[in-house]
Q: What sequence folds into this?
């Protein structure tokens, strides 16, 4: 099995953006683990209402204060440079400089994450505390970046199952050094894809999508939206899954997909704290997948919700994201997959009254059996009763207040006893 | 704009009943503001299971106590005379008199409101405290009223819109000097009608109905019920809207009309305290409009609910009803109207992914836009996402936890940008 | 009327099991009250996946301790003998004996109820306290039972109504001396059947089923399931109805039958404490009636829920079951029956506006009638408004927050006035 946390540690230092070599290096590290296909789309390409922008590649960037000391050095933390900064070299006063500095008064010690993809600007991000301590005088600014025609890079991979009906997982590869937002999702998708490649008998096909957020998802849909519209059963956007904060599940657009009920059932019986949210705008790429032209049912299972204290800042780092956090999320995702793969309508082959369970070694022969009974008996009887061709496994789980994961093993057992099909 | 509170002050002193000159004077004051049509229906006319009663006109009424002092003088407060009292002159003992006196022990200082429309009686209403202070002896009673064939008076008015589909507002004009019950509704309907007459581009037609309660509404439906059954989209009975007590909304009979959801959405985002009640019997004229033969979907947005302390007594006066109260109610009604007029299913003209909003100056170009975002952005994205031809504006408001009133302006903006139709 | 508590007292001492003379004596006592039909089914008969077991008849059973003192004497309390114990005579050590003794550490003073229907064993049940006090030494065991081919005994009875559509009541006759579990249900069914035999104009047919639990119900369905599947409107399993603990209603499998709503409506307005539970597995014979091959909608109205402290032990005795408890349950069942018999969709014969109720002496002529009004008026107006051919009586009850039992009398009154049909 892939070591997810190792992958996060490898991905963390890279400076990514919506285009450029950071994305390419990121996808290469993924490709070492799973056989994704990498695609390039030229700047200027039209994707629905959008145009692929020029490619951006930063090399070096810093400010020197009047005393000649480097501050806001890109080499130290790539969040210091405003994403998509144009090149600039020169000496300017503090007053002039302020118009190019971004800080977050609400989180005075963190460097905020900021970008200007669609308007040409240069700028630096720094902690509000540092901003307040700047002395008057002349500052030297050095930004060595290129922003010129090139391409947007993304990757995908299809794990074929028995049916063309597919489930997709989408993550984004465009954030610089933040650990939870963006790369925890990339790492989890990589591990999940590896699991599915090794799992036998997949019923659904699985599509994994690694794209820059928004523009990448839009570009991906411009190229693959028709096929996805035909085949997609449901999907998930995967991000913010590496911390140890409670789970937050954002439902699909309809809120009524079996996926929603399965995720909620598994969370409910997981012992983990969690909250469930109806679909809402804005959000991440579920916005594009769920747009009215596509209406792909896309859920979003996160931990630390976007908007929480560490979000979009230097505080979203390898202290915040833990091995325990990411592996716990992986396990929940894996159980969701297993449940979706087992969520069919089964048929009780002995539908008239209950079968004589003692005969099948499914029942204790001693004891007055009315009413009382173990949780095990409850689950077996519930499976038999509701397997009438009208109830799916998640229906049975809900009706019997059981975890769907527990029922999967019993379905197998009852099939072996020839009681279920 | 009509001064609603002035109209209430003018209407307050008039002694109204279900027939008679009080109703006529009331409707004349309304007609000074809006061009209503006034109708007369002869006593004895059959309306479904009911018969229009004789017309009642009171002129003078009082009791003189053994010391010759006038008590319960109609000239002082018209609630003193039992509604529909027959004429009577004579001297009677206190014991005999008691059989004709009505008081309310639960509200010892208030004169209760009481009537005897369908059984011939005479009587006086007085405060329970006054009743208790009456000395033994001979009392002189003087009631100068007429109760004889005449007619029942009502008025209506149709403000034509683009469609024959209509929304009606019904108020009642039959209560003597009480300010909240009955005349606050008359005044609000007058102002609302005036607003609609001046508003351009009304989609719906609007019917305003000014009738004596119960018998008047039944008479109105006997004459106009067929047409209303064909055309009515929904309606409201308007009463008890002049005080400053919390809002109370009584839902339509089905409880599922868009009107219900719009009223509740606007109340929820209004900052006002309010309660919502399922349709119930009894009530006011929504009983007749919602009877099984008509089933007109009729909601009822009130403030002080019928049954509250001041209800049906001399305490329902111009101290209880305030300018602030009636104008606040008017504003809520106006916003309901605007929302019903805008509650259509819109169509996103760029349904594949989100449009490139920066192009339309609808988006800030700076900042990492994932997840975060203003309430404004949330509303625009929600409107675009849910405008798929399946969701009406109230659906979008509910799904995005927005006030429908706020969405109306954005619909206009997105239409101008050619993003919505 | 049958004295239900007398019947419970007569039934209590009998040692019943799933077969044998105890069942026959029980059914004979019922047959003295109502004309049930008693049936015998031979051992070895196949019923779906089950086989009728050999017939068991206990005569005498005891253990003598090393001092020669009888303990766990069947003659003293028939719960002492493990149900379906095979015969045994011999002297054995305490250690060997322990393997045949059953107690319940959670209820140290009670003799637990235990059986071994489908595996041949012998054993005794005794209080955990008594078990702990046994001295080492040689014990003499004496069990005089027969377990040999015979038959299973059950009874039923059909009270024919105007339609073949039927409602069934099922109780079980297989528990030894416990008062609430099993025989309170037998007694209540007997009284209910007697009530229906004397009631005139039954719309539904009523089936009463007296069977050993599980195997008896399965055997009954093997013989009558086809007919029941055709005719059954709904049914109830009746047990644990003699104590004074709060009511517990377990819904039908669908949870949406009118029976569910009627039971809940009557409980809600009864002033009794109660809880409502969705259908769940396991339980009693509703498991068989609700199996996917039959899907008979079967509710279960109990008091002390299975699983409570006294359940399946010697504490479930004539102290726990009271005259007040069983008669209270009977009254609730009777009212449920009356409501199901009256739960039709009525038609307001004067659907345009309200009728002029004063004319029918249904209305007070004095008083301003808007809004205020008695509970009586509310019920009459609600009945008239909702009797539009779309709402059944339970719909009206729910919509007007009335007890359906109260509406039944008003339906009769309005029919007499020719206002309803």
A:
């Amino acid at each position: 099995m892939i070591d997810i946390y190792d992958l996060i540690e490898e991905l963390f230092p890279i400076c990514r953006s919506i285009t450029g070599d950071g994305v390419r290096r990121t996808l290469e590290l993924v490709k070492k683990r799973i056989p994704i296909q990498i695609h390039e789309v030229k700047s200027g390409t039209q994707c629905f209402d959008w145009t692929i922008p020029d490619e951006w590649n930063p090399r070096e960037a810093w400010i020197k204060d009047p005393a000649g000391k480097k501050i806001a050095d890109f080499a130290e933390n790539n969040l210091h440079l405003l994403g998509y900064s144009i090149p600039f070299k020169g000496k300017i006063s503090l007053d002039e400089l302020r118009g190019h500095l971004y800080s977050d008064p609400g989180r005075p010690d963190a460097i905020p994450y900021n970008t200007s993809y669609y308007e040409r600007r240069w700028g630096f991000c720094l902690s509000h505390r540092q901003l307040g301590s700047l002395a008057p005088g002349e500052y030297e600014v050095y930004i060595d970046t290129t922003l010129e025609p090139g391409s947007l890079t993304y990757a995908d991979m299809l794990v074929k199952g028995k049916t063309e009906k597919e489930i997709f997982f989408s993550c984004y590869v465009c954030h610089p050094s933040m650990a939870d937002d963006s790369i925890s999702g990339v790492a989890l998708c990589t591990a999940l894809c590896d699991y599915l490649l090794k799992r036998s008998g997949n019923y659904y096909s699985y599509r994994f999508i690694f794209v820059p957020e928004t523009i990448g998802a839009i570009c991906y849909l411009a190229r693959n939206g028709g096929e996805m519209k035909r085949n997609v059963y449901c999907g998930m956007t995967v991000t913010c899954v590496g911390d140890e904060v409670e789970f937050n599940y954002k439902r699909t657009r309809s809120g009524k997909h079996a996926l929603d009920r399965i995720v909620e059932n598994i969370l409910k019986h997981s012992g983990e704290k969690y909250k469930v949210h109806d679909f809402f705008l804005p959000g991440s790429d579920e916005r594009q997948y769920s747009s009215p032209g596509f209406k792909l049912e896309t859920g979003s299972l996160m931990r630390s919700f976007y908007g929480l204290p560490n979000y979009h800042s230097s505080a979203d780092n390898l202290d915040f994201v833990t091995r325990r956090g990411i592996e716990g999320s992986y396990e929940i995702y894996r159980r969701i997959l297993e449940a979706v793969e087992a969520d069919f309508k089964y048929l009780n082959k002995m539908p008239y009254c209950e079968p004589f369970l003692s005969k099948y070694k499914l029942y204790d022969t001693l004891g007055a059996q009315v009413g009382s009974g173990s949780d095990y008996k409850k689950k077996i009887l519930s499976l038999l009763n509701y397997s009438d061709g009208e109830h799916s496994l998640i229906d049975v789980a809900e009706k019997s207040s059981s975890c769907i994961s527990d029922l999967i093993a019993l379905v197998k057992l009852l099939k072996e006893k020839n009681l279920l099909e």
